[in-house]
Design a protein that fits this description.
Strand order of the largest sheet: 1-5-2-4-3-6
Structural class: alpha/beta
Strand content: 15-25%
CATH architecture of the largest domain: Beta Barrel
CATH superfamily of the largest domain: RlpA-like domain
CATH topology of the largest domain: Barwin-like endoglucanases
Helix content: 10-25%
Largest sheet: 6 strands, mixed, barrel
Number of helices: 2
Number of domains: 2
Oligomer: single chain
Shape: elongated
CATH class of the largest domain: Mainly Beta
Distance between the termini: 52 Å
Number of strands: 6
Radius of gyration: 22 Å
Order of helices and strands: HEEEEEHE
Length: 142
Amino acid sequence: MIPHGLARRGLALGAVALLGGVLAFAAPSWRGDDGASTGRTPSQVPVPGAGWYEALAAPYPADSRRRRTACGQEIGPRTLGVAHPVLPCGVKIFISYGDTVVLTQVVDRGPAVPGRDFDITRPLAARLGLEGTQQIRWRYAR
């Protein structure tokens, strides 16, 4: 039979070891290492089996007068962002069109046009040189 005090110490040490393991895995997400606070640009994350996804994208419709998006973002004349029906609000992605690659984020739900994967804010479309519905490439940013 194990003495009661020894069993309690063993249980406490096991709990501390488990907590340490959980913290070791959770700590990197607590650093806030999103590139915004340190000035570093997020790097591109390769997707297993494929580097880039292909999708159809077009600028927001000209008659879009909404001030706030479904993600709660205010759309302005300098907003660089995309609308996507599934990707979470705020997720950072790289969009590539032609020779231009831009880091952006999901700012809205959409698109409203069937067959299109992304709506792109007008400032982002201008930066990419994208007019009308075009084939783009995209990948997640880390």
